Amino acid sequence: MNVLKETKFILDKYHITANKNLGQNFLIDDEAVTGIIDAAKVSKEDLIIEIGPGLGTLTKELLEKAGKVICIELDKRMMEILEDRFSMYTNFKVINEDVLKVNLKDLIQQEKIKTAKIVANLPYYITTPIIMKLLEDRLDIETITVMIQKEVADRLVTEPGTGDTGAITYAIHYYTEPKRVLEVPNTAFIPAPKVNSSVIQLEILKTPSVKVENEEELFKLIKIAFMQKRKTLINALANSKKYGNKEQIEKVLRELKIDLQIRPEKLTLEQFAELSNLIETKIV
Ligand code: SAM
Known about the structure:
Number of helices: 12
Helix content: 40-55%
Bound molecules: S-adenosylmethionine
Order of helices and strands: HEHEHEHEHEHEHHEEEHHHH
């Protein structure tokens, strides 16, 4: 395999220039391709959903190893390329649609295949909405193996409560066990993005990592807290007006022995879960 040569050949043959608005950075590094496919442990028992196949670089390898590959690609120009390259594979299907609009749950259920996995070199402009959708839709999948910006990967795999996190960090650790798989330099793509990338793998947990009365309310609380993450938690919640006044929130925090000066990103997932349970019964 020489992904660089192949990519240049295809771009030239179909007169394709990368569309920046669609986050098109095509993978040209053989090692990175092998690294992602190996990490996903693709087998003939698997249905693979590939988000954003682009020219089909990962798709080609996936088709050889998987039971079935369903690609979801927004760019219409890629349809001809993908059909030309892969229509002879009986286990190949492509859907020309925005992945955020696709009912993935139904798509997976319709296939009579043992396990489903997501594999993708994600378009970076919508990494967070895509990952949130994959988690919140509660899909019947085993793993999500995706290439994303290194900086985002750092935030996603960090243990909640220990550093530079976002609301999505808590969702990741609630639904999955995340790990970093591979570091990929920006030179592994054409056009080269400004930043380096990482491949991460999220292993979906059979039951979420913490117990909470109301999952939806937990994530509402975390999102509200992180809307003002530079403020103290108590101020961020009081400003939102959803959880009563400062005094009421202070009472709840004291009961849970949570420091009144704490900032949202210093709270563990367990603390957010306890706070969500108590705040619902005492204030909301
Ligand atoms: N998989 C190819 C590779 O590794 O070379 C391309 C990866 S490129 C980073 C991201 C791909 O996602 C592009 O092909 C782009 O057109 C596609 N894409 C962008 N937004 C999308 C969306 N909302 N739904 C589905 N695909 C999308």
